[in-house]
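JOB MANIFEST
job_type = single_chain_structure
chain_count = 1
residues = 259
[input]
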Amino acid sequence: MKSEDLILITNDDGFKAKGIKVLKSVAEKLSKNVWEFSPSSNNSGKSHSITINKKIKIKQLNNKVFVINGTPVDCIIFGDKYLSRKKMKPSIILSGVNHGQNMGADLFYSGTVAAAREGSILGIRSFSISLEKNKQPSNWNTVLYYLPKILTRIKKINLKTDIFCNINFPNKDIKKIKGCKVVRLGKRKPGELSKIIKVKENNFYFLVPSERRMHKTAKVNEDEYEMKKSFITITFHSNLNEKVIERKLANAVGKNIEK
């Protein structure tokens, strides 16, 4: 990775979160040109939502740090637009470090992951990064130690810009990490511990906690299973149409359909 590479960072936990401070430290190890565009408040679970038909308030804290009163995807769209006006384009987008793992179906709900997905839609190599959250103190130093090494190695293989990677770190001490694995998405999903609370007749509360339990069907080479075995996990995701599936669908619906 070149020291002049423009790295754009964001998150969904908000600009005051510990995770984005850790991410900035990582980015500054890799480049002298780091820009931050982060939400003004916690946007966990906002997925790929954007703000429409409403002015978004933006505050510039210093030359390269902006706080956006919007979603993580708003941050990426604004950041890309702002930089393009200055004739600049991010080489890499880093989103995180989320305080809590993003695995399995979490990817469809996570604002952290959505920011990386938006980056890949814009044709920018993007990464979402999360640290497992449990009852133990958070091992941010594990991310500080391993993430620069992982990003440097991935940069060397020159992945297509339509692909984004989702990286999860076990909440373990540096010495207890067993390695890094490219894995498949598991079946972990939000809502399994959700609660419906009846207040009175015809009035309810619905609560979806951030905590999850390990999915009972978690398998070897899936993100959740391997992270629990103390491996850093990486899944990769593409926004390109899969040509084989595209051809099969075209053949299926392109024929006359019997009435």
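[summary]
The chain has a mean pLDDT of 91.
Residues 6-187+217-253 form a domain with the Stationary-phase Survival Protein Sure Homolog; Chain: A, fold (CATH 3.40.1210.10).
exit_status = 0
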